[in-house]
Design a protein that fits this description.
- There is one protein chain.
- By secondary structure, the chain is an alpha+beta fold.
- It has two helices and four strands, in the order βαββαβ.
- The chain has a single domain (2-70), classed as Alpha-Beta Plaits.
- The protein has helices spanning 14-25, 51-60, and strands at residues 2-9, 31-36, 39-44, 64-70.
- The protein starts with a strand and ends with a strand.
């Protein structure tokens, strides 16, 4: 598993937190460590899920991943 930290723009309320959380959970195998306004910390199984899949799920929910870093 690989830890990653995402900086996410467009989040401003509890609804946003839930939407991003649900988007991340829609990617099989990803473990959500925390979701806060503007930030998400995850564990991604290496080789099974790409960081791009996580980014796409979040952006499909209407939010923008501004930065991605290893945690």
């Amino acid at each position: 598993m690989k830890d990653i930290v995402l900086q996410i723009s467009g989040m401003s309320c509890g609804h946003c937190l839930n939407a991003v959380n649900q988007a991340i959970h829609s990617v099989a195998g990803v473990e959500v460590r925390s979701v806060r306004i503007g930030r998400a910390e995850l564990r991604v199984p290496e080789g099974r899920v790409s960081e791009e899949q996580v980014r796409a799920a979040i952006e499909e929910a209407g939010y923008k991943v501004e930065a991605l870093a290893a945690g």
